[in-house]
Specification:
The chain is an alpha/beta fold. It has 8 helices and 7 strands.
């Protein structure tokens, strides 16, 4: 079902996005990567996806906080791949501070990257999906699309907004064969989080296991991290025929965080 389709995954040079790109390539999708990082490592990832799975792999370095850059990326997808069949809005960033101390520039960039970028990629993808009569849009939200935590005002606001964008997109695309859902992970053990564990352990004079259990995983009843492979498998399922009637849903994969 996915063989020969093209998937664009934003923020896919590492972490969750990279895992989703890899999984969709395994399913036969051509892949457009996007994100920052070492150019040699990105080229190696492209080659690996193409050679391992027999697909075509491309890359856009678009800065998703800039609308012209997003428009250029989508034009590249159209010119080189015939458009986007599967769009995964994954790129995001975080900043932690009290509301009354939250830097305005951080608010602006987080809203631009975590929310506005998804609007722009969606608006530019939907015409082609409508023409083809098929499309899948997956927004990587967060448990913070459903619940809040202090000191994360921009991130929580953006993820709640992403949930609203998901629902409207699902309604508008429903009769065109387009499905839009959001995946809402809890804490995912990525290299970035792994580094945070070590730093936090030093700062708080705790063991790394104590940091994982008592700091990061305090909200997750399973006391286990979500893996990038689990999120990627979830995304692949949402692109499959078995998920054809899942539309406009905020789907948790958070170890029970939001069940509390």
């Amino acid at each position: 079902m996915m063989k020969g389709k093209t998937a664009l995954i934003t923020g896919s040079t590492s972490g969750i996005g990279k895992a989703i790109a890899t999984r969709l390539a395994e399913e036969g999708c051509n892949i457009i990567l996007n994100g920052f990082g070492d150019s040699g490592e990105i080229d190696a990832l492209k080659r690996s996806l193409a050679s391992s799975h027999g697909v075509v792999a491309g890359y856009s370095s678009a800065d998703l906080t800039r609308v012209p850059a997003i428009e250029n990326m989508m034009a590249y997808a159209e010119a080189e791949f015939g458009g986007v069949d599967i769009l995964v809005n994954n790129a995001g960033m975080q900043h932690v501070a009290p509301i009354d101390e939250f830097p305005v520039d951080k608010w602006n960039v987080i809203i631009a990257l975590n929310l506005s970028a998804a609007f722009h990629t969606t608006r530019l993808s939907m015409p082609g999906m409508k023409t083809k009569g098929w499309g899948r849009i997956i927004n990587i939200a967060s448990a913070h699309a459903k619940v809040a935590s202090p000191f994360k005002v921009a991130y929580v606001a953006a993820k709640h907004g992403l949930s609203g964008l998901t629902k409207v997109t699902a309604l508008e695309g429903a009769t065109y064969g387009i499905r839009c859902n959001s995946i809402c992970p809890g804490y995912v053990f990525t290299p970035l989080v792994e580094n945070q564990v070590a730093d936090t352990a030093k700062a708080r004079n705790m063991t790394e296991e104590q940091v994982k259990k008592d700091v990061l995983l305090a909200a997750q009843p399973t006391k286990e991290f979500v893996t990038v492979e689990q999120v990627a498998a979830f995304a692949a399922f949402l692109c499959s025929p078995a998920a054809d009637q899942i539309n406009g849903a905020d789907l948790s994969i958070d170890g029970g965080w939001t069940a509390q």
